[in-house]
Every structure is written in structure tokens, then in C-alpha cells.
Design brief:
With about 350 residues, this protein is an alpha/beta fold. The protein has a single domain, classed as TIM Barrel. Helices cover about 45% and strands about 10% of the residues. The chain has 14 helices and nine strands. Strands 1, 2, 3, 4, 5, 6 and 7 form a seven-stranded parallel beta sheet that branches. The protein has a two-stranded parallel sheet with strand order 8-9. Helix 7 links the parallel strand 5 and strand 6. Helix 2 packs across helix 4 and helix 6 packs parallel to helix 7. The termini are far apart. About 50% of the residues are buried.
Length: about 350
């Protein structure tokens, strides 16, 4: 028999700080003529996990869109705008999902038993070095911006670019404009130097939507102790990542190792800097995603990396999020701390950054 959910899990606003649903699954299924993809294919799993909010990346730097039903070649801007159209249309068709452009929308979704959808971008390639595009994307609902994916764009270098440079002049402008508009800046996938540049430039909380501790797992996608402390000082949040290769250096890391990342983050940055960013790929064709992802990572001579979307036992689905709550209780965290970790810290950042959904007057 499945044990009953603790009250803290049922009552919390639970935020999945990074998901990858729209960029491939909603996009290519709607191209194939399907409708209500989010509601039919993903909502039951999210509800099983008690999820209130998904921060879903709609497009960005990676070459999503190289699928049989699409054109052979598309630009990041074309892919983002097409996927955004599909995501917004899909939400419009749903009775149980709302587009969240304010924190009031999220709180309303929790009250009404609905899912709040936060539109995000993973890599600023669609900006095409034009700051006006960022303003238009905000008008269309963009509320979180991951500055890079793995490689270089006009904003900065990603973690797999050999030069490892930080923010460009345009990148500084983008961070400053995100602050003005009310868009959360996300440094996951950004080069080490770029992360420290953002911490220096941004006047708002800085987030790493899906990253872990490099001291516990050496992958460059994870954060050093100094980065963690800097994000915490900014008032930001780090979303704990569930993928095996970011949890442990050896194969098949355990659920307990995943929980150690939470404990380490709290030790370094305090209880207010930790959230969830599981990045779990489920309920859709992961083989297709792997092919698309590998193609996006091997263009222009970039060395190939093998991607295996595997997770610790007990955290292979967003429906498993109650296991995180149970693990936190076992570790001695009280209800107030658990509510912060499940979503309260993300909500504090959204409250601080989003300006009620509208940018301040010039």
C-alpha cells in the first residue's frame, strides 16, 4: 500500500524548476496533428507528483526541430517561435493548465487544482543579438532565460565551448534588460567565467535551474562551492538535478547520493537557496530526444558526448517527488524548510523578479 502523502507535500506549491516538454514533445506531436499534448500525456504524471508549476523550456540554442515532419534546416528563432505557438495553443485547449505570467497566476493554479506553466528559454540563440526580441518574448510570456546551452551564442560561452569565455557586451545588456523586464536569469549550462560575470552584473536573484554540487560530482555542468555561495548571496535558487551523470561520478548513483546534493547545498548556501530542477524526460520518445540532442552537440566539430537519460532509483519520474519529501523528513528537515525546498524558494524569486508581470516604466 502506498503511504499517504505528508500534509507538507499536499499543501506546498511544488515547482519543477526545469522541464523539457514543449521543445520536443508538444512541438513535434502537434506538427503531427495531435492536440492537448500537455494535458493528455504529461498532466497525470505531474499531478501524481503533486506538481503545481513547471518551468518548461520552449526552445533555445539546441537544434530541436530536426524531426521528420519539419523542414531540414531551421534557425533557433524559427524553432522557438514555432514551439511557443504550439505550447500556447496547447495550453489554450486545456481546462487544467494555465500560462503563468505572474505569481498570482501560480497561487490561483494551486487553489484551483490546476497546473501553472512558466515559459522558459534554454539558450539565448533566438535573440539573434537583438535586444528588442527579448522584450517581445517577455510580452508573449517568457519569464525565465537560460543564457546558454552547451556551446557559444551571442551572449556567452556554454560549458562545452573550449575557450570558456564569459559574458559578451551584448550578454551584459541581456542580463540588465532581464532585470528591468522581470525575467529570471538562469546560469545552468553557462561557462564558469560566465556565471561569475552574471553574479557581478545582475541586480536580481540569479538561478541555476538544473545543477548540482561539483564537489560531489565532478561534471562541469555542476557548480563549485564559490558559485553556490554566490547564487545564495544573490538571493537565488539552485534546482537539484536528477540525471545520473550529474548526481555521481560512478554509474548508477543512489537516491541517497541525490539527497546529499540537497544537504550540501543547504550547508553552503542556506535553506533559502535550494529548490527542485529534476529535468526528468518521461512520457515521450527519449530515443528521439537523444538523437536530436546528439546532433545539436556535434555540429561544427564539437566532440560527441554520449547521453543516457537514467536516474537514481526512486527519482525516475516527476511522480516520484513525494520520495524527496520523505527523504527530507528522514533527514530531519522541518515542514517550513521542506516547503521552501519544494517550491517556496522558487516562489520567492518569482515574486522578487517578475514585477507583477509587467516591466517597470522607463
Amino acid at each position: 500500500m502506498t503511504p499517504p502523502l505528508p500534509d507538507v507535500h499536499k499543501n506546498a506549491i511544488i515547482v519543477a524548476g526545469h522541464t523539457d516538454i514543449a521543445a520536443c514533445d508538444v512541438d513535434w506531436r502537434r506538427i503531427g496533428g495531435e492536440s492537448r499534448v500537455l494535458e493528455r500525456r504529461h498532466l497525470p504524471t505531474l499531478q501524481s507528483g503533486g506538481v503545481t508549476v513547471i518551468c518548461d523550456h520552449i526552445g533555445g540554442d539546441a537544434h530541436y526541430g530536426y524531426l521528420p515532419a519539419t523542414r531540414i534546416s531551421t534557425t533557433p528563432l524559427q524553432r522557438f517561435m514555432r514551439a511557443l505557438d504550439h505550447a500556447l495553443t496547447d495550453i489554450d485547449e486545456s481546462q487544467a493548465i494555465i500560462l503563468a505570467i505572474t505569481t498570482a497566476d501560480i497561487r490561483r493554479a494551486k487553489r484551483d487544482g490546476k497546473l501553472a506553466y512558466v515559459a522558459c528559454m534554454e539558450g539565448a540563440g533566438p535573440l539573434e543579438d537583438e535586444i528588442g526580441y527579448l522584450r517581445n518574448f517577455h510580452r508573449l510570456g517568457l519569464r525565465c532565460l537560460g543564457l546558454t546551452h552547451d556551446l557559444r551564442n551571442g551572449v556567452a560561452d556554454g560549458i562545452r565551448e573550449r575557450s570558456g569565455s564569459g559574458l559578451t557586451h551584448f550578454g551584459v545588456h541581456v542580463v540588465e534588460e532581464c532585470n528591468r523586464l522581470g525575467i529570471v536569469v538562469d546560469v545552468s549550462h553557462l561557462s564558469d567565467r560566465g556565471i561569475f560575470d552574471v553574479l557581478e552584473v545582475s541586480g536580481h536573484p540569479v538561478t541555476a535551474s538544473h545543477s548540482n554540487c561539483r564537489s560531489l560530482c565532478s561534471n562541469l555542468r555542476n557548480l563549485t562551492d564559490d558559485m553556490i555561495k554566490g547564487i545564495a548571496r544573490s538571493g537565488g535558487v539552485i534546482g537539484v538535478h536528477a540525471l545520473d551523470f550529474l548526481v555521481g561520478d560512478r554509474p548508477e548513483p543512489s537516491f541517497e547520493q541525490l539527497m546529499r546534493h540537497i544537504v550540501r547545498l543547504v550547508e553552503l548556501g542556506g535553506i533559502d537557496c535550494v529548490g527542485l530542477g529534476p529535468d526528468i524526460l518521461e512520457n515521450w520518445d527519449s530515443e528521439m530526444y537523444t538523437k536530436v540532442s546528439e546532433r545539436s552537440r556535434t555540429i561544427n566539430g564539437v566532440p560527441k558526448i554520449e547521453l543516457k537519460f537514467t536516474y537514481p532509483e526512486g527519482m525516475s519520474s516527476l511522480a516520484d517527488l513525494p520520495n524527496i519529501t520523505a527523504g527530507l523528513i528522514k533527514l530531519g528537515f522541518d515542514d517550513t524548510a521542506i516547503a521552501k525546498l519544494l517550491g517556496g524558494n522558487w516562489m520567492r524569486v518569482f515574486d522578487a523578479v517578475w514585477h507583477g508581470g509587467k516591466p517597470p516604466a522607463d
